[in-house]
Amino acid sequence: MTILRHELKRNRTSCLIWTGAIGALLIICILLFPEMKGQMAGVGEMFSSMGAFTTAFGMDRLNFGTLTGYYAIECGNVLGLGGAFFASLTGAGMLAKEESGRTAEFLLTHPVSRRRIAAEKLLALGVLIVLLNLAVYGLAVGSMLVIAEPVPWKEVSLMHASYFLMQLELGALCFGLSAFLRKGSAGIGLGTAFLMYFLNLIANITESAKFLKYITPFGYCDGADVVSSGRIDGTMLAVGAGIAAAAILAAFLQYERKDIH
Amino acid sequence: MNAIETEKLTKYYGKFRGIIDLDLSVEQGECFGFIGPNGAGKSTTIRTLLGLIAPTAGCARVLGKDVQKEKTAILRDVGYLPSEAVFYGGMRVKDILKLSADLRKKDCSARAAVLCERLELDPGRKAEELSFGNRKKLAIICAVQSDPALLILDEPTGGLDPLMQREFFEIIKERNRAGATVFLSSHILSEVQRHCGRAAVIREGRLIACDSVEAMRDSNARRVRIEGRVDLAGLPGLKDLNVSEQGASFLYSGDMQPLLHRLSEGDVRDLNITEPDLEEIFLHYYGKGEPA
């Protein structure tokens, strides 16, 4: 587990910064809620009458005046995008950074099989995503307790669980891409996260593009869907798991036979 | 069993030539030189032996094991010194040495401490702050600290000052005396001549000579440049002679005495005798036919 430990150390700062940034934004949003609640009558009406914009962010199905609705929209975007960026960036860099940073020669001339290296790196990615999500979940629930609002446990936990799964899928997808890259992994990682995020917005706006929800992992972690249905869509999740598994398999196959320059 | 054995080993990078039909055999326990100019295919050969790249055709065995099928087992007994070592940022010298040892599942701390002392490398320094020469020292210790059975060294002395080069070769020789095979890739002929028993010469991806260093020393030539007038007619060992109005330039591989005799008889205003660069030697002594 030397490589796992090594990867956790290398990504420690980045993980702390992302956790701190996402956590701080969530805390600010939640602490602002009591003040916002009073003004929500007007704001909620405004938010729910902005046409496509309203549909894109699911504000037609959520009540901005409740903590659940407020959290799903405000914090959902922060955690959704922030978490997605972290998972994609870290995943895309996992294998590729050894080549772009020219450390691959060092690592791969030690007696550790490439399969083992890829496996430990994948595990490290998983651990980092788990740590970030646990910390962020704790911070969010903690702030809700601070503002003395009743915590909507089920909804908040479901939302966090869906974002966590989405990050795992994106992380796995970018990990798969990482095996094919030699450099430029940051761009690919951010690009993938962005693309997936916008696919979901498009799916929300356009009825004929609904199928996109099955492609992007943001499909099953749309706060409005999760809160209104009270569950995470199983079919979308299954498709996501399939994509993740395929990406991981591709990563292993490619990394085994890749020429390292 | 040979330490290294390649058979028609070939590597193309797309259309670009890496190495072609390389037949190489290095016996166990010898110190073997691998000479060639930059871009000849030295690093390609080494990378194939280490399993970093897969050959296009042919096969190679290291310590009796197939480089493609038994990569990990080979690496367990091989210490590799890259020509340009790059390490992870944010780590200290001792952390990197520990990481390298951990990846080998060995405790090399005692050995590492001795080697740091000998090469005058401070284990507390941060790796990214090291100069090129100090990075090289760190790479040397990484390669040697586990006492591997085969040492593959790619341009090992670049960046090391003469004193450190001597210490480095002392360490390598100790390992060699203890039974380790040494594969030394270099474009510095004198380095190979001084330390290796046998050597192979590679040019444009092909092996053009493989012989004992003794035999190669005989063909060791000097580039002689003369300003003035000297009668060189009939002097044996003369190659690539260019005569101009100012003087002459040629490669000389004969005995020194007759040359000095001719020079003293002539009218020499200035004289310059240097080791020719490898290109010249390969071209005129190992080149079977002109370069493509």
Structure characterization notes:
Helices cover 78% and strands 0% of the residues of chain A. Chain A contains eleven helices and no strands. The longest helix of chain A is centred in the first third of the chain and has 36 residues, at 12-47. Chain A is elongated, with a radius of gyration of 20 Å. Chain A starts with a helix and ends with a helix. The model of chain A has no long low-confidence stretch (mean pLDDT 92). By secondary structure, chain B is of the alpha/beta class. Chain B has two domains: 2-212, P-loop containing nucleotide triphosphate hydrolases (Rossmann fold), CATH 3.40.50.300; 222-275, Alpha-Beta Plaits. Chain B is globular and about 65 Å long. Residues 288-292 of chain B have low confidence and may be disordered. The chains are: A mainly alpha (261), B alpha/beta (292). Chains A and B meet through helix 1 and helix 5 of A and helix 2 and helix 3 of B.
